[in-house]
Design goal:
The chain is mostly helical. The protein has 4 helices and 3 strands. It has a domain of 84 residues: Glutaredoxin, CATH 3.40.30.10.
Length: 172
C-alpha cells in the first residue's frame, strides 16, 4: 500500500483567492497621491493666509498718523544716507547721462544693458513716469550707468549711447 505524497510548497500552484498583492499596489498606495495633494493644498493655504495677514492693511501694530514718525521730515538732507552709497552718485551738473537737478534729494543710479528686455521694459514703462512725476519737480535725479553684459552688441550699444550723450541726445 502506498501512501499519497504531500505536495511540497514549490509544487503548489496558488489559487486565485490566495494571491498576495504586489508591493505598491492596492488601496493604501492609491491613496498616497491624494494624501500628498491634500498636504500640499493645506500647506499652500496656510502660507497664503500667513502672507495675507502679514501684508493686510492695518496689520501693523504701530499705526502712524499724520503727526506720527512718518510725517516728520528731517531738516538734514543726508539723514539716513549710508556714506558708501552716497559716494556712488556723481551729482555732476554737466553729466550728459543724467536727468534732473544735481542737488536733488534722491538719486536713482540705473545700471542697465540696452539688450536687456527687463531694462527696456523699465525704460519704456516706468522711467517716463518717474521723470514726469519726480525729475521734473526736482525730487529725483536719474544717473545712467552702462552695464553691457550681453556681449559685443551690448558694448557697441553702450558706446553709441555714450556718444549720443556727448551730443546732448542720450535721453532721446
Amino acid at each position: 500500500m502506498s501512501t499519497p505524497k504531500k505536495p511540497t510548497p514549490a509544487s503548489k500552484k496558488p489559487t486565485s483567492g490566495s494571491k498576495k498583492p504586489a508591493p505598491g499596489s492596492g488601496r493604501s498606495s492609491s491613496r498616497k497621491p491624494l494624501l500628498y495633494g491634500a498636504v500640499i493644498v493645506v500647506a499652500a493655504g496656510l502660507l497664503g493666509f500667513a502672507s495675507y495677514k502679514a501684508t493686510a492693511p492695518g496689520s501693523s501694530p504701530k499705526e502712524t498718523s499724520a503727526t506720527g514718525p512718518a510725517a516728520e521730515v528731517s531738516a538734514d538732507a543726508q539723514a539716513g544716507v549710508y556714506p558708501e552709497l552716497a559716494k556712488l552718485a556723481r551729482r555732476d551738473a554737466g553729466d550728459k547721462l543724467a536727468a534732473g537737478r544735481a542737488d536733488a534729494p534722491v538719486v536713482l543710479i540705473e545700471y542697465a544693458d540696452f539688450k536687456c528686455g527687463y531694462c527696456g521694459k523699465f525704460a519704456r514703462d516706468t522711467e517716463p513716469e518717474l521723470i514726469k512725476e519726480y525729475v521734473e519737480n526736482g525730487t529725483l535725479r536719474i544717473e545712467w550707468r552702462n552695464f553691457p553684459i550681453f556681449g559685443e552688441e551690448s558694448e557697441n550699444a553702450a558706446r553709441g549711447a555714450w556718444a549720443a550723450g556727448q551730443q546732448d541726445r542720450f535721453w532721446e
